[in-house]
């Protein structure tokens, strides 16, 4: 069983739609990261959170420690948001990565 | 804005050859990491490094792999005798503290032929 599960695996939506990507984990963590990976492969950290909610621009990340679940929301989605979004949890010194959600936003 | 830089961006090597992947972490960071991503698969942890020693490593990080911080600025990953299955994107990351947000380099794509 994967320690970090993301859903959906793939998501295609129209520009302007509200997007939700989910992450569940089964291990004890000190923090959870949401990252973005573009087609060229580069990884950008979006959020690191250990409780509650964080917002940056059109991106919102929430985490429920008791339920071991986190969500990443994108409001007013735009084609430039198209990327792979990855949830990774920090356990000891390492990050355990989810498989990613491939998001395509159509104009 | 400070960033993690990796060189080269792409390296092609023959099976059995040694490769060294280089990373320059953010200057005041103390924790350094290597991850890899085989094409089409998820990112996997290789090793973390703090205070000039390995703090944690995965099963992937066997005797063929080594890391070094030779001069206080570079952080290198060496693969002694490359195998075809070492072909992957290798990401370096650094953080100010072990629990802090990690910043990633753009990756080195290693192709073993």
Task: Describe the fold and architecture.
The complex is a heterodimer of chains A (107) and B (113). Chain A is built from no helices and 11 strands. Chain A is an all-beta fold and 107 residues long. In chain A, strands 2, 4, 5, 9, 10 and 11 form a 6-stranded mixed sheet that branches. A 5-stranded antiparallel sheet of chain A has the order 1-3-8-7-6, with no helix packed on it. Chain A is globular, with a radius of gyration of 13 Å. The mean pLDDT of chain A is 93. In chain B, 0% of the residues lie in helices and 50% in strands. Chain B is built from no helices and 11 strands. In chain B, the strands form 2 sheets. In chain B, strands 2, 4, 5, 6, 9, 10 and 11 form a 7-stranded mixed sheet that branches. Chain B has a 4-stranded antiparallel sheet with strand order 1-3-8-7, with no helix packed on it. At the A-B interface, strand 4, strand 5, strand 9 and strand 10 of A face strand 4, strand 5 and strand 10 of B.
**SSE-based structural type of chain B:** mainly beta
Radius of gyration of chain A: 13 Å
> How is the biggest beta sheet of chain A arranged?
6 strands, mixed
The strand count of chain A comes to 11
N-to-C order of helices and strands of chain B: EEEEEEEEEEE
Largest protein-protein interface:
A-B, 23 and 25 residues
Task: Name the helix and strand elements of chain A from N-terminus to C-terminus, one letter apiece.
Answer: EEEEEEEEEEE
Q: What would the principal axes of the Cα set say about the shape of chain B?
A: globular
Q: Beta-strand level of the residues of chain B, as a percent range? A: over 45%
Q: Beta-strand level of the residues of chain A, as a percent range?
A: over 45%
Question: What would the average pLDDT of chain A be, to the nearest integer?
Answer: 93
Distance between the termini of chain A: 37 Å
State Rg of chain B.
13 Å
